[in-house]
Backbone:
């Protein structure tokens, strides 16, 4: 695609937003718009990969277990607009839906979640739009995670366009519960009240396990630090042997 074509293509997208053009998921324009989200996802994933390697190499710190990316299906986008009682336009798609492009980072401990939130939120070339801490304030379902909405710059030959990406950061334990809860409710839309209560109870149990694992980790780190201090002190107090001759 040559520069003029890219420029015209981006202008057309901008006009679509202004003109409230209806979404046609089978149209070539929709495919081009989804390309923007895929590009933004690649940009943010690359930044996270670089951060992960930097922390490991320079700090010996490996908080990330794995990273998952996904793009919302066209039908899911339309369904979400309908649930929000919004017209299926490109304007509403860009402005009202934040999770078309999504990345999930799964960590070991709760402390890792907050450290990564601080680091990623301070990336200089992304725009932070919103934060939601479902660790401290879980959803009524029991769901726990940390959500960040970012605008990621996507570079084209004719300029830069900022595109929304939703970032979810959670622990292994939280991801275990969330994945199974989604499968259970997705396959059974009429799940009983008792089963829903049980899922909430299990979420609290898993959160308690998460806290205990973090406490064990913190104690081990403290013991390691104390041992290092003691070893250093012992080295300094050892008498140096020398021979005195007249």
Residues:
């Amino acid at each position: 695609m040559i520069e003029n074509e890219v420029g015209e293509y981006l202008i057309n997208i901008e006009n679509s937003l202004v003109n409230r053009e209806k979404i046609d998921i089978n149209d070539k324009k929709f495919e081009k718009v989804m390309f923007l989200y895929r590009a933004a996802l690649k940009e943010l994933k690359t930044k996270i990969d670089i951060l992960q390697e930097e922390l490991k190499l320079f700090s010996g710190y490996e908080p990330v277990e794995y990273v998952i990316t996904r793009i919302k299906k066209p039908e899911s986008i339309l369904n979400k607009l309908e649930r929000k009682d919004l017209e299926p336009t490109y304007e509403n798609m860009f402005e009202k839906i934040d999770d078309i492009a999504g990345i999930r980072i799964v960590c070991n401990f709760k402390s890792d979640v907050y450290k990564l939130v601080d680091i990623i939120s301070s990336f200089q070339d992304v725009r932070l739009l919103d934060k939601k801490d479902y660790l401290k304030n879980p959803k009524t379902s029991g769901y726990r995670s940390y959500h960040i909405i970012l605008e990621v710059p996507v570079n084209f030959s004719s300029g830069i366009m900022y595109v929304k990406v939703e970032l979810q950061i959670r622990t292994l334990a939280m991801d275990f519960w969330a994945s199974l809860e989604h499968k259970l409710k997705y396959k059974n839309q009429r799940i009983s009240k008792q089963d829903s209560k049980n899922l909430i109870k299990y979420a609290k149990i898993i959160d308690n396990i998460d806290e205990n694992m973090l406490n064990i980790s913190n104690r081990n780190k403290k013991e390691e630090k104390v041992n290092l201090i003691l070893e250093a002190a012992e080295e300094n107090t050892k008498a140096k042997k020398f021979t005195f001759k007249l």
About this structure: The longest helix spans residues 193-237. Helices lie at 3-19, 28-59, 74-83, 90-96, 110-121, 172-187, 193-237.
